Amino acid sequence: MPFKAGLELTELQNMTVPEDDNISNDSNDFTEVENGQINSKFISDRESRRSLTNSHLEKKKCDEYIPGTTSLGMSVFNLSNAIMGSGILGLAFALANTGILLFLLLLVSVTLLSIYSIYLLLVCSKETGCMVYEKLGEQVFGTPGKMIVFGSTSLQNVGAMLSYLFIVKNELPSAIKFLMGKEESFSAWYVDGRILVVTVTFGIILPLCLLKNLGYLGYTSGFSLSCMVFFLIVVIYKKFQIPCGGSELNATSSILSNSSAHEHMCKPKYVIFNSKTVYALPTIAFAFVCHPSVLPIYSELKDRSQKKMQLVSNISFFAMFVMYFMTAIFGYLTFYDNVQSDLLHKYQSKDDILILTVRLAVIVAVILTVPVLFFTVRSSLFELARKTKFDLCRHVLVTFVLLVIINLLVIFIPTMKDIFGVVGVTSANMLIFILPSSLYLKITWQDGSKLTQRIWASLFLALGIMFSLVSIPLVIYDWVQSGGSAEGH
Protein backbone atom coordinates (compact mmCIF):
# COMPACT_ATOMS: atom_id res chain seq x y z
CA MET A 1 0.00 0.00 0.00
CA PRO A 2 2.76 2.55 0.71
CA PHE A 3 4.36 1.76 -2.64
CA LYS A 4 1.04 2.24 -4.42
CA ALA A 5 0.47 5.52 -2.70
CA GLY A 6 3.92 6.69 -3.70
CA LEU A 7 3.28 5.61 -7.25
CA GLU A 8 0.04 7.55 -7.36
CA LEU A 9 1.82 10.61 -6.04
CA THR A 10 4.48 10.30 -8.75
CA GLU A 11 1.83 9.94 -11.41
CA LEU A 12 0.05 13.00 -10.12
CA GLN A 13 3.26 15.01 -10.20
CA ASN A 14 3.92 13.97 -13.82
CA MET A 15 0.39 14.80 -14.93
CA THR A 16 -0.03 17.86 -17.15
CA VAL A 17 -3.00 20.12 -17.38
CA PRO A 18 -4.91 19.53 -20.63
CA GLU A 19 -4.71 22.32 -23.07
CA ASP A 20 -8.08 23.95 -23.07
CA ASP A 21 -8.57 27.47 -24.29
CA ASN A 22 -11.37 28.01 -21.80
CA ILE A 23 -8.95 27.32 -18.99
CA SER A 24 -5.52 28.48 -20.11
CA ASN A 25 -6.68 31.82 -21.38
CA ASP A 26 -8.82 32.74 -18.39
CA SER A 27 -6.85 34.93 -16.02
CA ASN A 28 -9.49 34.38 -13.33
CA ASP A 29 -8.70 30.65 -13.23
CA PHE A 30 -4.90 30.85 -13.38
CA THR A 31 -2.41 33.26 -11.86
CA GLU A 32 1.08 33.59 -13.41
CA VAL A 33 4.01 33.52 -10.97
CA GLU A 34 7.74 33.23 -11.47
CA ASN A 35 8.01 29.45 -10.84
CA GLY A 36 5.00 28.35 -12.85
CA GLN A 37 1.25 28.37 -12.79
CA ILE A 38 -0.96 28.20 -9.68
CA ASN A 39 -4.72 27.69 -9.88
CA SER A 40 -6.46 30.72 -8.41
CA LYS A 41 -9.50 28.56 -7.60
CA PHE A 42 -7.20 26.70 -5.20
CA ILE A 43 -6.23 30.05 -3.68
CA SER A 44 -9.92 30.98 -3.38
CA ASP A 45 -10.70 27.68 -1.70
CA ARG A 46 -7.76 28.17 0.65
CA GLU A 47 -8.96 31.67 1.54
CA SER A 48 -12.45 30.30 2.18
CA ARG A 49 -11.03 27.64 4.47
CA ARG A 50 -8.95 30.30 6.23
CA SER A 51 -12.08 32.46 6.66
CA LEU A 52 -13.99 29.52 8.06
CA THR A 53 -11.11 28.75 10.39
CA ASN A 54 -11.01 32.36 11.61
CA SER A 55 -14.77 32.27 12.12
CA HIS A 56 -14.43 29.04 14.05
CA LEU A 57 -11.66 30.50 16.19
CA GLU A 58 -13.78 33.60 16.83
CA LYS A 59 -16.62 31.38 17.98
CA LYS A 60 -14.29 29.35 20.18
CA LYS A 61 -13.05 32.59 21.64
CA CYS A 62 -16.61 33.38 22.68
CA ASP A 63 -17.41 29.81 23.68
CA GLU A 64 -14.82 28.68 26.18
CA TYR A 65 -16.62 25.47 27.06
CA ILE A 66 -16.55 24.59 30.74
CA PRO A 67 -18.82 21.77 31.94
CA GLY A 68 -21.54 22.93 34.32
CA THR A 69 -21.92 21.49 37.81
CA THR A 70 -25.25 22.93 38.99
CA SER A 71 -28.27 20.63 39.17
CA LEU A 72 -31.58 21.43 37.50
CA GLY A 73 -33.29 22.08 40.85
CA MET A 74 -30.59 24.48 42.03
CA SER A 75 -30.67 26.24 38.65
CA VAL A 76 -34.42 26.77 39.10
CA PHE A 77 -33.69 28.28 42.53
CA ASN A 78 -30.98 30.54 41.10
CA LEU A 79 -33.16 31.78 38.24
CA SER A 80 -36.11 32.33 40.58
CA ASN A 81 -33.73 34.36 42.73
CA ALA A 82 -32.75 36.41 39.68
CA ILE A 83 -36.39 37.08 38.79
CA MET A 84 -37.51 37.93 42.30
CA GLY A 85 -36.81 41.47 43.45
CA SER A 86 -38.36 44.67 44.69
CA GLY A 87 -40.84 44.60 41.81
CA ILE A 88 -43.05 42.36 43.94
CA LEU A 89 -43.75 45.34 46.24
CA GLY A 90 -45.34 47.33 43.39
CA LEU A 91 -47.65 44.68 41.93
CA ALA A 92 -50.57 45.35 44.30
CA PHE A 93 -50.43 49.01 43.25
CA ALA A 94 -50.46 47.91 39.60
CA LEU A 95 -53.50 45.70 40.27
CA ALA A 96 -55.31 48.53 42.05
CA ASN A 97 -54.99 50.65 38.90
CA THR A 98 -55.94 47.98 36.36
CA GLY A 99 -58.48 45.77 38.12
CA ILE A 100 -58.18 42.06 38.82
CA LEU A 101 -59.04 40.75 35.34
CA LEU A 102 -56.89 43.21 33.39
CA PHE A 103 -53.97 42.68 35.79
CA LEU A 104 -54.24 38.90 35.43
CA LEU A 105 -54.27 39.25 31.65
CA LEU A 106 -51.15 41.46 31.73
CA LEU A 107 -49.38 39.16 34.19
CA VAL A 108 -50.06 36.05 32.09
CA SER A 109 -49.00 37.89 28.91
CA VAL A 110 -45.70 39.17 30.34
CA THR A 111 -44.93 35.74 31.82
CA LEU A 112 -45.45 33.96 28.48
CA LEU A 113 -43.60 36.66 26.52
CA SER A 114 -40.69 36.50 28.96
CA ILE A 115 -40.47 32.74 28.51
CA TYR A 116 -40.45 33.22 24.73
CA SER A 117 -37.70 35.85 24.98
CA ILE A 118 -35.62 33.40 27.04
CA TYR A 119 -36.12 30.87 24.22
CA LEU A 120 -34.80 33.37 21.65
CA LEU A 121 -31.85 34.19 23.90
CA LEU A 122 -30.96 30.51 24.30
CA VAL A 123 -31.14 29.96 20.53
CA CYS A 124 -28.79 32.92 19.98
CA SER A 125 -26.41 31.56 22.61
CA LYS A 126 -26.41 28.14 20.95
CA GLU A 127 -25.73 29.60 17.49
CA THR A 128 -22.87 31.87 18.61
CA GLY A 129 -21.51 29.94 21.57
CA CYS A 130 -21.66 33.05 23.79
CA MET A 131 -22.58 32.63 27.45
CA VAL A 132 -22.41 36.34 28.39
CA TYR A 133 -25.05 38.83 27.23
CA GLU A 134 -22.53 41.59 26.42
CA LYS A 135 -20.34 39.20 24.42
CA LEU A 136 -23.42 37.95 22.56
CA GLY A 137 -24.32 41.52 21.61
CA GLU A 138 -20.75 42.18 20.46
CA GLN A 139 -20.57 38.92 18.49
CA VAL A 140 -23.76 39.73 16.55
CA PHE A 141 -23.77 43.54 16.25
CA GLY A 142 -20.17 44.46 17.04
CA THR A 143 -19.28 47.29 19.42
CA PRO A 144 -22.73 49.01 19.13
CA GLY A 145 -24.37 45.75 20.21
CA LYS A 146 -22.06 45.49 23.20
CA MET A 147 -22.81 49.12 24.16
CA ILE A 148 -26.58 48.64 23.92
CA VAL A 149 -26.53 45.47 26.00
CA PHE A 150 -24.25 47.14 28.55
CA GLY A 151 -26.54 50.17 28.76
CA SER A 152 -29.69 48.06 29.17
CA THR A 153 -28.27 45.71 31.81
CA SER A 154 -26.62 48.57 33.73
CA LEU A 155 -29.81 50.64 33.75
CA GLN A 156 -31.74 47.59 34.95
CA ASN A 157 -29.26 46.99 37.78
CA VAL A 158 -29.20 50.69 38.72
CA GLY A 159 -33.00 50.68 38.76
CA ALA A 160 -32.96 47.65 41.07
CA MET A 161 -30.46 49.39 43.38
CA LEU A 162 -32.63 52.52 43.44
CA SER A 163 -35.71 50.48 44.37
CA TYR A 164 -33.78 48.69 47.12
CA LEU A 165 -32.47 51.94 48.61
CA PHE A 166 -35.96 53.37 48.30
CA ILE A 167 -37.15 50.51 50.54
CA VAL A 168 -34.48 51.55 53.07
CA LYS A 169 -35.63 55.17 52.80
CA ASN A 170 -39.28 54.18 53.40
CA GLU A 171 -39.04 51.32 55.89
CA LEU A 172 -36.05 52.05 58.13
CA PRO A 173 -37.61 55.13 59.80
CA SER A 174 -40.70 53.11 60.79
CA ALA A 175 -38.56 50.30 62.18
CA ILE A 176 -36.43 52.72 64.24
CA LYS A 177 -39.53 54.51 65.61
CA PHE A 178 -40.94 51.17 66.73
CA LEU A 179 -37.70 50.13 68.43
CA MET A 180 -37.57 53.54 70.17
CA GLY A 181 -41.19 53.19 71.29
CA LYS A 182 -42.20 56.30 69.37
CA GLU A 183 -45.41 56.99 67.46
CA GLU A 184 -45.44 56.81 63.66
CA SER A 185 -46.04 60.58 63.59
CA PHE A 186 -42.79 61.19 65.52
CA SER A 187 -40.41 63.30 63.47
CA ALA A 188 -36.77 64.04 64.17
CA TRP A 189 -33.77 64.52 61.92
CA TYR A 190 -32.33 61.10 62.81
CA VAL A 191 -35.49 59.30 61.61
CA ASP A 192 -35.61 61.18 58.31
CA GLY A 193 -35.54 58.58 55.52
CA ARG A 194 -33.25 60.70 53.34
CA ILE A 195 -30.62 61.02 56.08
CA LEU A 196 -30.91 57.34 56.95
CA VAL A 197 -30.45 56.14 53.36
CA VAL A 198 -27.29 58.26 53.01
CA THR A 199 -26.01 56.96 56.37
CA VAL A 200 -26.65 53.34 55.39
CA THR A 201 -25.10 53.85 51.96
CA PHE A 202 -21.80 55.32 53.15
CA GLY A 203 -21.66 53.49 56.48
CA ILE A 204 -22.48 49.94 55.34
CA ILE A 205 -22.80 49.68 51.55
CA LEU A 206 -19.71 51.74 50.61
CA PRO A 207 -17.22 49.59 52.61
CA LEU A 208 -18.71 46.44 51.06
CA CYS A 209 -18.53 47.95 47.57
CA LEU A 210 -14.85 48.83 48.06
CA LEU A 211 -13.90 45.17 48.45
CA LYS A 212 -12.18 43.61 45.43
CA ASN A 213 -14.29 40.45 45.57
CA LEU A 214 -17.93 40.35 46.64
CA GLY A 215 -18.52 36.72 45.76
CA TYR A 216 -19.52 35.72 49.27
CA LEU A 217 -22.38 38.22 49.23
CA GLY A 218 -24.02 36.14 46.53
CA TYR A 219 -25.34 33.94 49.33
CA THR A 220 -27.56 36.83 50.44
CA SER A 221 -29.71 36.26 47.36
CA GLY A 222 -31.06 33.14 49.05
CA PHE A 223 -31.82 35.17 52.16
CA SER A 224 -33.50 37.83 50.01
CA LEU A 225 -35.76 35.22 48.37
CA SER A 226 -36.62 33.79 51.78
CA CYS A 227 -37.58 37.27 52.97
CA MET A 228 -39.91 37.74 50.00
CA VAL A 229 -41.56 34.36 50.63
CA PHE A 230 -41.97 35.36 54.28
CA PHE A 231 -43.42 38.68 53.11
CA LEU A 232 -45.99 36.85 50.94
CA ILE A 233 -47.03 34.65 53.87
CA VAL A 234 -47.51 37.73 56.07
CA VAL A 235 -49.49 39.53 53.32
CA ILE A 236 -51.89 36.56 53.09
CA TYR A 237 -52.16 36.32 56.88
CA LYS A 238 -52.77 40.07 57.33
CA LYS A 239 -55.57 40.03 54.74
CA PHE A 240 -57.70 38.12 57.27
CA GLN A 241 -56.53 40.19 60.24
CA ILE A 242 -56.74 43.77 58.99
CA PRO A 243 -60.28 45.17 58.53
CA CYS A 244 -61.46 46.21 55.10
CA GLY A 245 -59.15 48.82 53.64
CA GLY A 246 -56.87 49.04 56.68
CA SER A 247 -56.90 51.56 59.50
CA GLU A 248 -56.70 54.62 57.23
CA LEU A 249 -59.75 53.60 55.24
CA ASN A 250 -61.72 52.76 58.41
CA ALA A 251 -60.89 56.17 59.87
CA THR A 252 -62.15 57.78 56.70
CA SER A 253 -65.25 55.64 56.45
CA SER A 254 -66.18 56.30 60.10
CA ILE A 255 -67.08 59.87 59.24
CA LEU A 256 -69.17 58.83 56.25
CA SER A 257 -72.86 58.88 56.92
CA ASN A 258 -73.65 56.66 53.97
CA SER A 259 -72.61 53.05 54.63
CA SER A 260 -72.95 52.20 50.93
CA ALA A 261 -69.94 54.43 50.22
CA HIS A 262 -67.87 52.31 52.56
CA GLU A 263 -69.07 49.14 50.86
CA HIS A 264 -68.19 50.61 47.48
CA MET A 265 -64.66 51.45 48.65
CA CYS A 266 -64.16 47.87 49.85
CA LYS A 267 -65.55 46.23 46.74
CA PRO A 268 -62.94 44.69 44.38
CA LYS A 269 -62.84 46.11 40.85
CA TYR A 270 -62.11 43.97 37.82
CA VAL A 271 -61.27 46.44 35.05
CA ILE A 272 -59.95 49.95 35.74
CA PHE A 273 -58.50 52.67 33.51
CA ASN A 274 -56.98 55.80 35.04
CA SER A 275 -53.81 57.91 34.83
CA LYS A 276 -51.86 55.35 36.88
CA THR A 277 -52.86 52.36 34.72
CA VAL A 278 -49.90 53.14 32.45
CA TYR A 279 -47.52 52.04 35.24
CA ALA A 280 -48.97 48.52 35.42
CA LEU A 281 -47.19 46.99 32.41
CA PRO A 282 -43.76 48.58 33.13
CA THR A 283 -44.03 47.45 36.77
CA ILE A 284 -44.83 43.88 35.75
CA ALA A 285 -42.06 43.92 33.13
CA PHE A 286 -39.58 45.23 35.74
CA ALA A 287 -40.60 42.40 38.09
CA PHE A 288 -39.86 39.71 35.48
CA VAL A 289 -36.50 40.87 34.11
CA CYS A 290 -33.77 38.30 34.76
CA HIS A 291 -32.18 38.12 31.29
CA PRO A 292 -28.64 39.21 32.26
CA SER A 293 -28.52 36.21 34.63
CA VAL A 294 -29.95 33.62 32.23
CA LEU A 295 -26.77 32.87 30.28
CA PRO A 296 -24.47 32.63 33.36
CA ILE A 297 -26.98 30.24 34.97
CA TYR A 298 -27.16 28.31 31.68
CA SER A 299 -23.36 28.00 31.58
CA GLU A 300 -23.36 26.51 35.09
CA LEU A 301 -26.14 23.98 34.35
CA LYS A 302 -25.01 20.36 34.59
CA ASP A 303 -25.29 18.43 31.28
CA ARG A 304 -26.61 21.63 29.80
CA SER A 305 -28.79 21.76 26.73
CA GLN A 306 -31.19 24.32 25.32
CA LYS A 307 -34.16 22.09 26.17
CA LYS A 308 -33.03 21.61 29.76
CA MET A 309 -32.46 25.33 30.32
CA GLN A 310 -35.85 26.10 28.79
CA LEU A 311 -37.40 23.75 31.37
CA VAL A 312 -35.55 25.64 34.11
CA SER A 313 -36.96 28.96 32.87
CA ASN A 314 -40.50 27.56 32.49
CA ILE A 315 -40.56 26.27 36.07
CA SER A 316 -39.01 29.46 37.48
CA PHE A 317 -41.39 31.80 35.67
CA PHE A 318 -44.44 29.73 36.63
CA ALA A 319 -43.37 29.77 40.30
CA MET A 320 -42.83 33.54 40.22
CA PHE A 321 -46.14 34.03 38.41
CA VAL A 322 -47.97 32.28 41.28
CA MET A 323 -46.04 34.22 43.91
CA TYR A 324 -46.53 37.57 42.18
CA PHE A 325 -50.25 37.07 41.64
CA MET A 326 -50.88 35.97 45.24
CA THR A 327 -48.93 38.94 46.62
CA ALA A 328 -50.77 41.38 44.37
CA ILE A 329 -54.27 40.01 44.96
CA PHE A 330 -54.00 39.69 48.75
CA GLY A 331 -52.28 43.06 49.06
CA TYR A 332 -55.02 44.67 46.98
CA LEU A 333 -57.85 42.95 48.88
CA THR A 334 -56.35 44.27 52.12
CA PHE A 335 -56.08 47.97 51.18
CA TYR A 336 -58.05 48.26 47.90
CA ASP A 337 -57.68 51.74 46.37
CA ASN A 338 -55.48 52.90 49.27
CA VAL A 339 -52.61 50.62 48.32
CA GLN A 340 -49.27 52.34 47.61
CA SER A 341 -46.48 51.62 45.14
CA ASP A 342 -44.48 50.20 48.07
CA LEU A 343 -46.89 47.64 49.55
CA LEU A 344 -44.71 46.96 52.61
CA HIS A 345 -44.99 50.61 53.63
CA LYS A 346 -48.77 50.26 54.07
CA TYR A 347 -48.40 47.86 56.99
CA GLN A 348 -48.02 49.69 60.28
CA SER A 349 -45.43 48.10 62.58
CA LYS A 350 -46.74 49.77 65.75
CA ASP A 351 -47.27 47.00 68.33
CA ASP A 352 -46.93 44.41 65.56
CA ILE A 353 -43.82 42.27 65.98
CA LEU A 354 -44.61 40.25 62.83
CA ILE A 355 -44.65 43.31 60.56
CA LEU A 356 -41.53 44.67 62.25
CA THR A 357 -39.76 41.35 61.65
CA VAL A 358 -40.69 41.38 57.95
CA ARG A 359 -39.63 45.00 57.64
CA LEU A 360 -36.24 44.40 59.26
CA ALA A 361 -35.65 41.21 57.24
CA VAL A 362 -36.39 42.96 53.93
CA ILE A 363 -34.24 45.97 54.90
CA VAL A 364 -31.25 43.75 55.75
CA ALA A 365 -31.75 41.69 52.58
CA VAL A 366 -31.81 44.70 50.26
CA ILE A 367 -28.86 46.38 51.99
CA LEU A 368 -26.74 43.27 51.43
CA THR A 369 -27.98 42.84 47.84
CA VAL A 370 -27.09 46.38 46.69
CA PRO A 371 -23.29 45.75 46.72
CA VAL A 372 -23.73 42.66 44.51
CA LEU A 373 -25.60 44.68 41.87
CA PHE A 374 -23.16 47.56 42.25
CA PHE A 375 -20.20 45.24 41.72
CA THR A 376 -21.76 44.05 38.44
CA VAL A 377 -22.35 47.59 37.15
CA ARG A 378 -18.85 48.77 38.06
CA SER A 379 -17.19 45.69 36.52
CA SER A 380 -19.14 46.20 33.29
CA LEU A 381 -18.13 49.87 33.26
CA PHE A 382 -14.43 48.99 33.65
CA GLU A 383 -14.74 46.27 31.02
CA LEU A 384 -16.30 48.74 28.60
CA ALA A 385 -13.52 51.26 29.27
CA ARG A 386 -10.95 48.42 28.96
CA LYS A 387 -9.62 49.25 32.42
CA THR A 388 -9.64 45.71 33.77
CA LYS A 389 -6.38 46.03 35.70
CA PHE A 390 -7.11 46.88 39.33
CA ASP A 391 -6.23 50.44 40.33
CA LEU A 392 -7.09 51.45 43.90
CA CYS A 393 -7.58 55.18 43.25
CA ARG A 394 -9.80 54.60 40.24
CA HIS A 395 -11.68 51.86 42.11
CA VAL A 396 -12.45 54.13 45.08
CA LEU A 397 -13.26 57.21 42.96
CA VAL A 398 -15.70 55.43 40.63
CA THR A 399 -17.38 53.68 43.58
CA PHE A 400 -17.84 56.93 45.49
CA VAL A 401 -19.14 58.92 42.50
CA LEU A 402 -21.63 56.22 41.47
CA LEU A 403 -22.99 55.90 45.01
CA VAL A 404 -23.38 59.70 45.28
CA ILE A 405 -25.37 59.76 42.01
CA ILE A 406 -27.55 56.85 43.11
CA ASN A 407 -28.26 58.50 46.48
CA LEU A 408 -29.23 61.80 44.83
CA LEU A 409 -31.70 59.90 42.64
CA VAL A 410 -33.16 58.05 45.64
CA ILE A 411 -33.58 61.30 47.58
CA PHE A 412 -35.29 63.24 44.80
CA ILE A 413 -37.41 60.51 43.17
CA PRO A 414 -40.81 60.82 44.86
CA THR A 415 -42.16 57.25 44.62
CA MET A 416 -41.19 53.72 43.66
CA LYS A 417 -43.72 53.73 40.82
CA ASP A 418 -41.48 56.25 39.03
CA ILE A 419 -38.54 53.85 39.28
CA PHE A 420 -40.65 50.91 38.07
CA GLY A 421 -42.10 53.05 35.28
CA VAL A 422 -38.83 54.42 33.88
CA VAL A 423 -36.86 51.19 34.12
CA GLY A 424 -39.84 49.15 32.92
CA VAL A 425 -40.35 51.11 29.69
CA THR A 426 -36.62 51.36 28.92
CA SER A 427 -34.21 48.64 30.05
CA ALA A 428 -36.84 46.00 30.90
CA ASN A 429 -38.42 46.47 27.48
CA MET A 430 -35.01 46.24 25.79
CA LEU A 431 -33.97 43.10 27.69
CA ILE A 432 -37.30 41.25 27.34
CA PHE A 433 -38.54 42.27 23.88
CA ILE A 434 -36.16 44.18 21.64
CA LEU A 435 -32.69 42.69 22.22
CA PRO A 436 -33.53 38.93 22.11
CA SER A 437 -35.66 39.33 18.97
CA SER A 438 -33.11 41.60 17.24
CA LEU A 439 -30.26 39.20 17.98
CA TYR A 440 -32.28 36.25 16.73
CA LEU A 441 -33.31 37.99 13.50
CA LYS A 442 -29.71 39.02 12.79
CA ILE A 443 -28.30 35.54 13.44
CA THR A 444 -30.93 33.75 11.31
CA TRP A 445 -30.94 36.40 8.57
CA GLN A 446 -30.03 33.98 5.75
CA ASP A 447 -31.60 30.83 7.19
CA GLY A 448 -34.60 30.11 4.96
CA SER A 449 -35.67 27.11 7.07
CA LYS A 450 -36.59 29.39 9.97
CA LEU A 451 -39.00 31.68 8.16
CA THR A 452 -41.90 30.97 10.53
CA GLN A 453 -39.75 31.54 13.60
CA ARG A 454 -38.44 34.76 12.06
CA ILE A 455 -41.99 36.01 11.53
CA TRP A 456 -42.83 35.39 15.20
CA ALA A 457 -39.59 37.08 16.28
CA SER A 458 -40.41 40.07 14.04
CA LEU A 459 -43.86 40.37 15.65
CA PHE A 460 -42.21 40.13 19.06
CA LEU A 461 -39.83 42.94 18.12
CA ALA A 462 -42.72 45.06 16.81
CA LEU A 463 -44.56 44.49 20.11
CA GLY A 464 -41.56 45.76 22.07
CA ILE A 465 -41.24 48.86 19.88
CA MET A 466 -44.97 49.56 20.17
CA PHE A 467 -44.76 49.13 23.94
CA SER A 468 -42.04 51.81 24.08
CA LEU A 469 -43.84 54.20 21.74
CA VAL A 470 -47.04 53.99 23.80
CA SER A 471 -45.72 53.72 27.37
CA ILE A 472 -42.95 56.33 27.40
CA PRO A 473 -45.18 59.27 26.33
CA LEU A 474 -47.90 58.17 28.79
CA VAL A 475 -45.45 57.99 31.70
CA ILE A 476 -44.11 61.46 30.83
CA TYR A 477 -47.67 62.77 30.52
CA ASP A 478 -48.53 61.44 34.00
CA TRP A 479 -45.43 63.14 35.44
CA VAL A 480 -46.53 66.45 33.93
CA GLN A 481 -50.10 66.04 35.15
CA SER A 482 -49.25 64.91 38.68
CA GLY A 483 -46.38 67.35 39.07
CA GLY A 484 -44.22 64.65 40.68
CA SER A 485 -46.52 64.32 43.68
CA ALA A 486 -46.12 61.24 45.85
CA GLU A 487 -49.14 59.10 46.36
CA GLY A 488 -49.43 59.01 50.04
CA HIS A 489 -45.79 59.22 51.08
Structural description of this entry:
The chain has 19 helices and two strands. It has 489 residues and is mainly α. The protein has a single domain, classed as Amino acid/polyamine transporter I (Up-down Bundle), CATH 1.20.1740.10. Strands 1-2 form a two-stranded antiparallel ribbon. Strand 1 and strand 2 form a beta hairpin. Helix 10 packs parallel to helix 15. The longest helix has 38 residues, at 143-180. The chain is globular, with a radius of gyration of 29 Å. Residues 1-61, 248-257 and 484-489 have low confidence and may be disordered.
Briefly, what is this?
Helices cover 71% and strands 2% of the residues. It is built from 19 helices and 2 strands. A two-stranded antiparallel ribbon has the order 1-2.
> Superfamily at the CATH H level?
Amino acid/polyamine transporter I
Q: What count of structural domains?
A: 1
Tell me what portion of residues adopts beta-strand conformation.
under 5%
Main sheet, how many strands, which sense, barrel? 2 strands, antiparallel
Topology as H/E string? HHEEHHHHHHHHHHHHHHHHH
Low-confidence residue ranges: 1-61, 248-257, 484-489
Membrane topology: Multi-pass membrane protein
Transmembrane segments: 76-96, 102-124, 145-167, 187-209, 216-237, 278-299, 311-333, 353-375, 396-413, 419-443, 455-477
GO cellular component, one term: plasma membrane
Pfam family, one: Aa_trans
